[in-house]
């Protein structure tokens, strides 16, 4: 190999290494190690539509007073939310009648919606009472992860379930998640996550999707496995059940507020060695998704790379570990 070519390769390698150091330095300088959770004053209370009074939300740091809190993040969901809430509340009401010790709440978190999402949710709060249905209206759009976190931080349950507003997952499959979680954690003070999964439906999904969307799906799964989560096949299903202890640890440590927040949650769970189980659920694709196949997956891929980079270089740290050490 001629000296000129060797010299060129050396310069290219040196440039790549220098660029890498600059990127790491910028990430370390620009990134706060722990999430800065901002909560506006209007987001700290909810409206009781029966008494027409505002009531302060409780805190995840408080002792639980209910069996189950269901968090429903909703962004411009006036059309899909009613069918989801009808199914959810019918199931929970039936369960509470059959088991006197079972009580619940549903917290609908409107993520800066510009449509009638809040009005729709308040109708359910008025019908069922604010002890069972509460509506949190975020001042600005935070992203799905940010909306779920705000609901979790205001929940009263020993168990916390977040469920998508489209109702794609059969709500009755909560029983399967609850059974699985009970095998991992004997009570709310212990850690555990039961993860709703559509992995068993993957062959059918490939058959019904376009070739382009199938390539995107496999590409995303590969990136998740490479950079973040290796023990869970389906990280993105919007049906996950946590003990209160686990929810407190994970959501106070969460940085990502948009679509890839599920991946960071499960990455944190793996890092903290929390018990997890993946549970097959019934799922049907519902029209009206806010995800645009190419751009949303591109954003999630970018978020995955940043999750890996920031934790690897120490720009992001895990708040739950810091609290334990102190």
Automatic annotation (TrEMBL):
Q: Which organism is it from?
A: Drosophila pseudoobscura pseudoobscura
Under which EC number(s) is this enzyme classified?
2.4.1.117
The protein's name is Dolichyl-phosphate beta-glucosyltransferase
Topology term for the membrane = Single-pass membrane protein
Transmembrane residue ranges? 6-29
Q: What is its main location?
A: endoplasmic reticulum
InterPro entries named among the record's database cross-references: DPG_synthase, Glyco_trans_2-like, Nucleotide-diphossugar_trans
Q: Name one GO biological process term.
A: protein N-linked glycosylation
Describe which pathway this protein belongs to, using the record's wording.
Protein modification; protein glycosylation
